[in-house]
Amino acid sequence: MKTISQRMIRLTAASVFAGAFALPLWAGDVAKVNGQAIPESHLQAILDKQIEQGQKDTPELREAIREELVRRVAIEQAAKKAGLDKDAKVQAEMALAKQGVLLRHYLTQYMKDHPVTDAELQAAYEKIKKAFAGNEYHVRHILFESESAAKQAIADLKSGKVKWEELAKQSKDPGSREKGGDLGWATPEMFVKPFSDAMTQLKKGEMTEQPVKSEFGWHVIRLDDVRPQTPPALESIREQLTQQLQQQKMERHIEELVAKAKVQ
């Protein structure tokens, strides 16, 4: 059996074996270890997981799973012989593992029974489109510690004494000074209010006439370009948006279950 790694089989087995006994038993056993039968349902539980991950159902794969199940039962028997199954901490972990399998299957089934509808998807997309209202700005800035330094910079730029790119190297903003002060495309809410207020008042190609004070220092701001925001096409975010809505729907269901539960 050399078509799939033992490590992959063991990881899959670890995730399903604790709850495999809760599945309907299939006729027949795949092996017996010191007289303890391994039901075919255990093999099938792991096989189903492997198939979900892209593996093909082959005799070699089934034999690999069978070998892993034999290993696990042998270890399980040794653990029980050592009395670990009577240990309170071990019992608690086993109970939580069983509970986890049950929860996972319940929530998976719930999402199958309550899929995200086209109407829900479209409604969520309309909210995204509204969030893209307004413009986005391609802006640069040079940050100074003092107002006087910023005013001098504006005067030097206006007179042509210095070029923007050279002056930007003196900026106190380490994230943009090596890029000519370029902050890329951004929306007003991405900046502190004094900065965004000054930026949105500029026309393409303009620079602030006076330094702009913020909590970071004194800014000289230049607007390179402006354009309307464009929301992503629905098809480009359909999968991500569907997953987000599924998660929200599941969380709401869990909250409803908890709210209805009698907790003492």
Automatic annotation (TrEMBL):
It catalyses: [protein]-peptidylproline (omega=180) = [protein]-peptidylproline (omega=0). SUPFAM superfamilies: FKBP-like. GO terms for molecular function: peptidyl-prolyl cis-trans isomerase activity. Keywords: Isomerase, Rotamase, Signal. InterPro entries: PPIase_dom_sf, PPIase_PpiC, PrsA_foldase. Residues 134-225 form the PpiC domain. Its EC number is 5.2.1.8. Residues 1-27 form the signal peptide. It comes from the Bacteria. PANTHER family: FOLDASE PROTEIN PRSA, PEPTIDYLPROLYL ISOMERASE. Belongs to the PpiC/parvulin rotamase family. This is peptidylprolyl isomerase.
